[in-house]
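Hi, here's the filled form for the chain we discussed.

Project: internal
Contact: R.S.
Residues: 80
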Amino acid sequence: MSLGNEMHEWRKQLVEKLLLNGVEAEDLEGQVSAAELVVFGGQVATVTIEVPLKHAKELKTILLDFSQKNGSFVIAKTDN
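And the returned structure, exactly as it came back:
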């Protein structure tokens, strides 16, 4: 199982437990976000993406927008 799948499964199980413990649906996102911050908050992932050169500019724009919204860093690097 990949890390992404494990994290998704963890979140799903947490939501189920919160619902079973009587947490209101409108309060779920706040509690899940707080739990994710405790569990994953200090973790950093480095991701390598290979993309055809013709799509590189579009991908860079998308990633820069994502980084600004989420406080992450995008470092562009090419291998010759």
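Let me know if anything looks off before we file it.
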